[in-house]
Amino acid sequence: MTAMLDSLERNTFSLIAPAKINLALHVTGRRSDGYHLLDSLVVFAHFGDKLSVKRASADSFEMSGPFGRHLPDDGSNLVLKARDALRQYFPEQATPVAIHLEKYLPIASGIGGGSSDAAATLRALTALWGIEAEPAQLAEIGLLLGADVPMCLHGQPLVARGIGEDIERLGSFPHLPMVLANNGVSISTPQVFAALERRDNPPLPAMPALSSVDDVCVYLAETDNHLFSATEKLTPAIGDTMKALQNTAPRLVRMSGSGGTCFAIYDSDSEAETAAATLKQSKPDWFVVATHSITEGN
User: What residues does the GHMP kinase N-terminal domain cover (predicted)?
Assistant: First the structure.
């Protein structure tokens, strides 16, 4: 029995499920089925949840971390939905697994925590179960779980179009020092989309070569997050987060996704760390973290 348990422990796969940051998000239309069409420049932060999977005699699922208690541990959890979806496609290889999610990202906060968790689950279980799935097949499974899951499977700078499934990976992208902040507000993404006053905005402008923080900020000044006005109307407290970040002298401040997480970009990692420390001191109950963008696939 001891030998078997040691073997099980060695077959553990752990992945970081990084926060997804919408640097720019344009709403360009809406399909007949109600899904909104988007044009978004996306990066992933060097900070996120941690997901571990290992072989077991029976399925189990545990959560920990500062936000673990806020998530359901039943079939509505995207981690379990991802496990079950992959198992349905590859039933012969899908042996029982123990899954542990360490939740460090706030819930429903506009940084793709659930979608990134689902993507990490697909990638980790594919490795654990020895599944040789094509990226397109994993993306197809991911899209069944949510529009953001396919881009989270990439985990590197990209432009996402359509409902999120039309992905253009960016070959190179600069290192962006950032601070993420969330004051604890709860925001419903469907309600935000329902509150939009305009859904036929222009797409992102053509993107030049971006090789520095300055290049990125100059480009982002020509873009927007078209969800912000609707979010602010529904949840005025999002303005408190924006103002607090603006007071740290960043290069740019913007809301990610539908909120309520906002981000600020700085010229250096040390500036981001100083800004985060200052903000944590004045807002000890907020989620605040200094991080930077991932420049290559995870």
Answer: 77-156
